[in-house]
Structures are given as structure tokens and as C-alpha cells.
Amino acid sequence: MPEMQAKSNYGAVIDAISRFLAAPPEGTPVELIDAFSQLGDKRFLPPRLFVETVEQSPVAISITDPSARILYANSAFERLTGFTREQVIGHNESMLSSKSTPLSVYQDLWDTIRNKLVWSGKLVNHRANGEEYLAELCISPVLNSDGGVAYYLGMHRDITEMHRLEQKLRFQKSLTEAALDAAPMVVAMIDGDGRVLLDNHSYKALQGDFRGVEPAELFTDALKAQIGSDLLAACGEGKGFTNVDVRLDPPSGRMPRWFTCSGVRIAELDSAARSFFKAGASGRCCLLLIANEVTDSRERINEARLTMIRANMAEQQLVQTMREAISASIFQFQVPINIVKAALSMSASAGDKPGLGAALSEALERGEEAIESLHAALPGPSAEQNASVNVNELVHEVLRLSTERFLASGVVVDWRTAPVLPALSGRPNALRGLFKYVIDNAVDALNEAGLDYREIRIETCTVDGEIVVSVMDNGGGIPDAIRLRVFEPFYCGWEHARNHAGMGLTMAEEVAISHGGSIEIDRDFLGGSRVFIRLPYPDDGEA
Ligand code: FAD
Questions:
Q1: What atom of ligand 1 comes closest to residue 110's alpha carbon?
Q2: CA separation for the pair 116, 10 (Å, rounded)
Q3: Which of 88, 103, 106 to mutate to test the pocket of ligand 1 (most atoms within 8 A of CB)?
Q4: Mean pLDDT lowest for which of 162-171, 324-333, 348-357?
Q5: Which residues line ligand 1 (CB under 6 A)?
Q6: Which runs of E-coded beta strand occur in 95-221?
Q7: Residue 94 CA: which ligand 1 atom is closest?
Q8: What is the residue-wise DSSP string for 488-542?
Q9: Which residues face 533 on adjacent strands?
């Protein structure tokens, strides 16, 4: 590469010098004319034009002999250095050195040019008045007909101001980065394709907590589920957002994390040449995402909420137990009534024994009255309103409410959630009840199996427009023969059936179906049982 550059520069030098030779300006050093006459031909520009070009060039140009003794310098050289031609001609270029350029730079310069290659770099020079400046220098070797170095052509310009601006920019960049890194909130600049252009320490720490998953992706998914529109597209249209709460679920069942997010649209300035005269022309649109972690305060609010839910569920449980007990009584009462009905019809057909028909009719009437009063006493289903629910949150609440039971039964809970789930419209208490039935059953199954290692694994994910919650336990499992019967009312397959009316899975199924979903026992699961609960969510992700 340097050789190619050397060749093209070398060609340019020959071209320029050949034109100079036709009419060297008055006062041009004899050595210079001698040097130029060894090079190039005279086919191109008129020589005077060459001289005028070199003379009027805004770049400081000098020509030296092989030991850097100056033979020629143009007017820009005089203006830039403050030295007149008379003061520099015959002197070494080192007279410009401010003596603060490291020796290694000069060694590199000389190693390069003595090898007949072009050297470019930066040197610290001083002007005639002693003022220092940063020079950007390009030195091309000029070869004689034998291929040896005859002269060096030096061109340099003052880049002090540019360097100052660069340093200022660098300082401002490091200042911005330091400020961003010191900020406790997660900050990321995301472009229209979802790529992260800039981030901070908190962002990287979060990435570590989520095992390398890009937090920008998690936030955009969570915000999409929360505010229901494509965030980057919305930002492209100039819409920002402020203080939207999102929940992210870390892997391996660690506590959920809460963030309050704001997004600001930042339009990158268009750096294309054609946009130079269009003031304020903007290029790509980016989103500056600022996410403030509020897990602690959210935890406190959740604790209070959990107490309320606990009370609510206890009441629900009480009503449920009453419903189960009364339903069981109605169910059991129906048996003798059916017998009385049969006896009545038999006695009627066999010829009524005196008084028996009347007694049976009265027994039947009383029995039906009793069933009616039991029906009247049956507490009605609670009229719960639909709300936007996050399934991860509901399952997590149920797990927290069951913690004491897990500890008492020595159960290890492996909680594997999808980091973000779409919201769905549902009855939170009913859904909590559903999850609690299934999880309680898993604990019961483990207690009955009596194994040393007892584990419940709960996973959440989305499949084909449905949120799927799977609850696995390593207990005795559910034989295929009763896989469907377990959902029948009053079916109880536990060996120790105390406190079990056999209505739990019936209720759970009722709740799942009323949410347009289903509950199913995985027939292929080995080493325990696995229950799938599927709940459809709306297409647009809106709750
Ligand atoms: P020096 O002792 O002169 O040189 C330092 C080191 O450079 C030496 O140890 C040696 O490794 C190497 N060196 C020096 N001269 C030669 C040589 N003739 N052959 C081989 N190696 C050598 N310097 C500036 O500071 N500012 C300029 O603007 C500048 N412009 C130049 C333009 C041209 C066309 C050329 C050819 C050189 C230019 N130089 C410039 C380099 C200059 O000639 C000096 O080498 C440099 O200034 C260091 O000078 P010094 O007296 O501090 O040390």
C-alpha cells in the first residue's frame, strides 16, 4: 500500500517538476534547477503555471537535498512558519523542530523515506516567533535517473486547531461516557433495526444478570406488550414515552425486576455531503432508552398486595369449600331420592300397599325440598371483573403464597419463566386459584410419593398465540387410565384423601375454559406428572 502511494506521489512530483523546468522563476536555487532537470519530461502544463501553482498553494511546500537541507520553500511555507526563504534555505528542516517530538518518530520518518517510500505523520514544530504548532507532514522522496534519492519534497499544514477540536470532542465523549457509566439507571441508544449504539455500565450489568441476552431486546418486547405498539416505529414517527413500568423475569426463577422506562427520540444528524447546505438535516432515528430500576419499591408494594391476595384467597377458599361440601351433599342426597323415586314407581305398578305410596311420596317431596334448600344455600360464583393480567406475575404470587408449604414438604421449586409474556385479559383471582390447585396437587403428589428429592418445575412460554404454563413434579405420576377422570367432579385418587373433595381440577378446568383456554395432563411425561395450562392471548398483545 505505501509503495503504491509512493508511486502515485512520485508521479505527481515528476509531473509538477517537469512543468517547473521550462521557466524556473528568478531566484530559484541552482541546486533545485539542477535537481528538477534530472526528472520528468516537459509535455504537460506551462512551467510558469506550475511555479504559480506551487507558489500560491495553501500548503507549505519545501524541497530538500537527501540530508534534509532546504533548497526551496514556497510562500505558504513562509506564512506558516514565519521564517523567510532567506532564513531557511541552506538550513536543515530540523530548524522547525520544537524538540518535543519523540526521537522514535524521526527514526520512523527517516527509515521510511530512505527506503524511497512516502512518510506521513505529525510533528511538533515552532514558528519564527517561538510559537508551537502541530504539523501534519507528508514527505515524498524524489529519485534521480539512477534510482537513488536525489531530493525530498515536503508538504505540511497546521492542524493545531483541528487537534484541539478533536481533543475537545474526545474529552466530551469521555465525559459523556463517564456520566452515563456513573448513572445508576440503564441507558441505551437503540437504532431503528434494534441495534445498540451506545450503552452504560448498568446496561452491561443487566446483560450479565440475564445471561448475555441483550437487555434492549427485552425492554422493547416488554414495552411492546405494555404499550401495545412497535416502539422503534413509534419513535421513528417522533413519539416518545415516559414512565412506563415494565417487568423482566430473570432466568432460573430469580426475583422479577421492575423498571420505569422513558424513551426519547434522537435524530442523528445527516453527515452525507449532499446534506451540507440543508441546515438541521436529520438522518437515522434512534431511541434513547432510560430505564430506572424500581424493584425495591415495587417489592414493598407487592408485599402489601400479597397480604391482600392472601386474605382474598383464604376467603375464596372458604367459599369454595362450602360450595364443594354443599355440592357433595346434593350429589349424595340425590342417591336416596332416586331410590325413593324407583320404589314409588315400583309400588305403584305392584299395587299400592296401604299407606306406602303416600309415605314414599312424602319422603320424595321432603327430599326434593331439602335439595332445593341446599341449592339455595350454594354460594354463587364470585362476580370477578376481567383485568389485564401478567401470567408470570400471577404464578409468582401463588408460589410466594405457597412458600411455607414448599418448605414444610421439603420441595425445591425450579421456576423457569419466559422473560416477557404478553398481557391477557382475565380474572386474576380465578386464575390464581387455577394455578394454586395445580401447584397444590403437585405438592400432594410429592408428599404421597415420599421421595427424598422433591422438585416442582414451573415453566412459562408462548406457543402459537397461547401462554403455556407447565407444572411438573417428580412424584408418582398420573396413570393413563385416570388421565381424563381426574377432571371429573368428586373424583379423588389420593391414597390419603383427607380434605379432598375431588373438585380442584374440575374448578381449574372450568377457569381455564372460561378464559378460552385448556388444561391437560401430558401423557408422555415420564418420572412424575406434567400439567399444561394454555391461555390464549390477543393477537395485538393488548390486554
Ligand atoms: P537529528 O539528530 O537530526 O535526527 C533525529 C533522528 O532522525 C536521528 O537519530 C536519525 O535516526 C534520524 N535522522 C536524522 N537525519 C537523518 C538523515 N539524514 N539520514 C538518516 N536518518 C536521519 N523535522 C521537524 O521537526 N519538522 C519538520 O517540519 C520537518 N520537515 C522535514 C521535511 C523534509 C523534506 C525532511 C527530509 C525532513 C524533515 N524533518 C522535519 C526532519 C528533520 O530533518 C530532522 O530529522 C528532525 O527535525 C530531527 O532533528 P534533530 O536535530 O532533533 O535530530
A1: 21
A2: 10
A3: 106
A4: 348-357
A5: 62, 64, 67-68, 92-94, 96-97, 101, 103, 106-107, 110, 114, 123, 125, 135, 137, 139, 152, 154, 156
A6: 119-126, 132-143, 149-158, 186-191, 196-199
A7: 47
A8: STT----SS-TT--S-HHHHHHHHHHHTT-EEEE-TT--SSEEEEEEEE--TT--
A9: 469, 519
Cβ atoms of 205 and 402 within 8 Å: the answer is: no
User: How far is the CA of 126 from the CAs of 96, 101, 162, 196, 435, in angstroms?
Assistant: 6, 11, 17, 45, 81
Cα distance between residue 509 and residue 308, in whole Å: 25
Pocket test for ligand 1, best of 97, 103, 138, 156 (most atoms within 8 A of CB): 97
Task: Report how far residue 396's alpha carbon sits from residue 417's, in angstroms, rounded to the nearest whole number.
Answer: 10
Using CB atoms within 10 Å of the CB of residue 65, give its burial: 0 to 12 exposed, 13 to 18 middle, 19+ buried. middle
Answer for the pair 57, 80: CB distance below 8 angstroms, yes or no: no
User: 7 pLDDT exceeds 50?
Assistant: no
Q: How confident is the model over 420-477, as pLDDT tens digits?
A: 889 899 999 899 999 999 999 999 999 988 889 999 999 999 999 999 999 999 999 9
Nearest CA to ligand 1 atom 13: 110
Does the predicted model carry a pTM greater than 0.70?
A: no
In 10 A of CB 234, how many CB atoms? 18
Residue of 522, 524, 427, 506 lying closest to 468 (CA atoms): 522
Q: Give the tens place of pLDDT for each residue, 164-197.
A: 999 999 999 899 889 999 989 999 998 878 889 8
- Which atom of ligand 1 lies closest to the CA of 152? 34
Residues contacting residue 95 through CB under 8 Å, at least 6 positions apart:
83, 88
CA angle 468, 474, 475 (to 5 degrees): 115
Cα of 33 vs centre of ligand 1, distance in Å, is 24
Tell me the C-alpha distance between 289 and 284, whole Å.
Answer: 16
* 89, 70 contact by CB (below 8 A): yes
